[in-house]
Amino acid sequence: MNTQAVTSQTANISVEGKSIELPIIVGSENEKAIDISALRQETGYITLDNGFMNTGSCQSSICFIDGEQGILRYRGIDIEDLAEKSTFVEVAYLLIYGKLPNKTELEDFSQGLTRHSLLHEDMTHFFSGFPSNAHPMAILSSMTCSLSTYYPGSQDTNDDEQMNLDVIRILSKLRTIAAFSYKKSIGQPLIYPDNSLSYCANFLNMMFAVPSEPYEIDPEIVKIINQLLILHADHEQNCSTSTVRTVQSSGASIYAAISAGIAALWGPLHGGANQAVLEMLENIQASGDDYKTYLGKVKDKKSNIRLMGFGHRVYKNFDPRAKILRQAADKILSKLGVKDPLLELAKGLEEQALTDPYFVDRKLYPNVDFYSGIIYKALGIPMDMFTVMFALGRIPGWLAHFKEQRDSGVKKIFRPRQIYTGPTQTTYVPIDKRA
Ligand code: CMC
C-alpha cells in the first residue's frame, strides 16, 4: 500500500558551492519530508541524525500519530474508538490486513488463532532449560526465534500463503509461550489452551487457572485485557518496530524479525518502562520521599534518574493511551476492590509534574507505561511479565510492518552510513614491540 504523493515542490540544498534540488514528499495527513536519496551521489555528503529524531525510514499507511495534538489512529480510526468498541483480534486484523474484517473474515481469522494455539510438544521442554528466575522477555524472544525451527518453510519469505500462516502462528503461539513461561516461573503445571475461549479469555485461563480448582473468567477483566492490548498494538516507527523492519530488510524470516523486536522492546526506555514505573513507585514508597523530593532528584541532572512513564519522542502533549489507562486504572481497581497506594502516588506525582516548569518546558507528559503497570498489578500479573504484556499487544503492529515492508516493493536492505572518527591508517605493531 502506497499513499505517498511526490509533489511538484522541491527543496534546494547547497553544499560546497554545488546546489541540488531534492523532491518533497507529502503524506496523507500533510506530513512533509525531503527525499534525500540522491544526496550522497550528488554531493558526497550524508546526513547525521542522532537517534533519528528527523529521519523518516519508510512510508507507511498503518498508524498515524500527531504528537502535538495527542492523536493516535490505526488505519485512520481513532484509538479511543477502537479501545471502546473493538476487540484485540479485530484490531490485529485491521492493522495487518489494512481494513476492518467483515463477519466471515473475522470468524476465519479467529478460528485460525484458536487452531494454532498449541506449541509443538517438544517445545514445552525448552522451558525447563531456563533458570527459574529467567526474565520472561528473554524466554519470549528466544522461544519466538526457536519457533522458526519447527516451520522451516518460513525461510521462504516470498511465499504469501506461508506468511499468512506464520502471522497466525505468531499471534496465537506467543500468547501460549507467555503464559507457559509464567507458569514455569512459579512452578505450576502448564495450562493448555482451551479452544472454546476467546483470545484474551484463553490467555487469562492459561495464566491463572490451576488443575485443582475451577477458574472463573470475568468478562470485565477480559474487556480490560482487550483494551490494554489494543492500546499497545502499534505505534509507527518506534525502536522495536524499526528493529523488525530492519531485520525484514535483510530477508530474514518473520520469526527472526519478531524475536528481534521483542529484544528491542525489553529496554527500560521502551517497553521495559512499565516495569520500571512500578519499581520506581515502590522505591518512592519505601524511601518515604514525598513527590517534591523525588521530582527534585529527577530534575538534578547529576542524579541520572528519570521519571519513568513520563516523556515521549513523539507526544509533546498528552499521550492519548495514558488518558484512557488513567481512567481504566480507577475503574478496574474499584471493581476489584483493590486499594493500591501506588495509584494515589502515581496520580500525585503526575499532578505535581504537570505544573512543574522542568516538565512543562520540556513537554513531558505521562505516557502509556505510567498507569499500565498499576492495572497489571491489580489483575495479579507479576511485575516481570508487564513488558511481556506490552509485547503481546505489539505483535500485530510488528507483523503489519513486516508485511507492509515485504509487500512494498522497496527491496533495499537497511544499511545506514556513519562518520568515522577512529585513527587513520596505522601500522601493525608486533606484540613484543608494544608498550
Ligand atoms: N524524566 C526526566 N527528564 C526527562 C524525561 C523523564 N522521563 N524524559 C525526558 N527528559 C528530559 C531529558 O533529560 C532532556 O532534558 P534536557 O533537554 O535538559 O537534556 C529532555 O527531557 C528531552 O529528553 P530526551 O531524552 O532527549 O527525549 P527523547 O525523545 O530522546 O526520549 C524517552 C524519549 C521516552 C526515551 C524519554 O522521555 C524517557 O526516557 N522517558 C522515560 C522512559 C519511558 O517512560 N519510556 C516509555 C516511552 S512510551 C512507551 C514506548 O514507546 O515504549
What features would you highlight for this structure?
6 strands; globular; binds carboxymethyl coenzyme *A; 435 residues; mainly alpha; three-stranded antiparallel sheet; single chain
Walkthrough of the structure:
A hairpin with a 2-residue loop joins strand 1 (5-15) and strand 2 (18-26). The model has no long low-confidence stretch (mean pLDDT 94). The radius of gyration is 24 Å and the shape is globular. It has helices spanning 39-43, 79-85, 88-97, 103-115, 121-124, 126-129, 136-150, 160-185, 199-208, 219-232, 239-249, 254-265, 273-287, 291-299, 320-336, 341-354, 357-361, 369-378, 386-407; strands at 5-15, 18-26, 32-34, 63-66, 71-74, 77-78. The chain is 51% helix and 8% strand. The chain contains 19 helices and six strands. It starts with a strand and ends in a 28-residue tail after the last helix. The strands form two sheets. Strands 1-2-3 form a three-stranded antiparallel β-sheet. A three-stranded antiparallel β-sheet has the order 4-5-6. Helix 10 packs antiparallel against helix 15 (320-336). With 435 residues, the chain is mainly alpha-helical. It binds carboxymethyl coenzyme *A (CMC).
Give the gist of this structure.
The chain has helices at residues 39-43, 79-85, 88-97, 103-115, 121-124, 126-129, 136-150, 160-185, 199-208, 219-232, 239-249, 254-265, 273-287, 291-299, 320-336, 341-354, 357-361, 369-378, 386-407, and strands at 5-15, 18-26, 32-34, 63-66, 71-74, 77-78. It is mainly α and 435 residues long. The chain has a three-stranded antiparallel sheet with strand order 1-2-3. A three-stranded antiparallel sheet has the order 4-5-6.
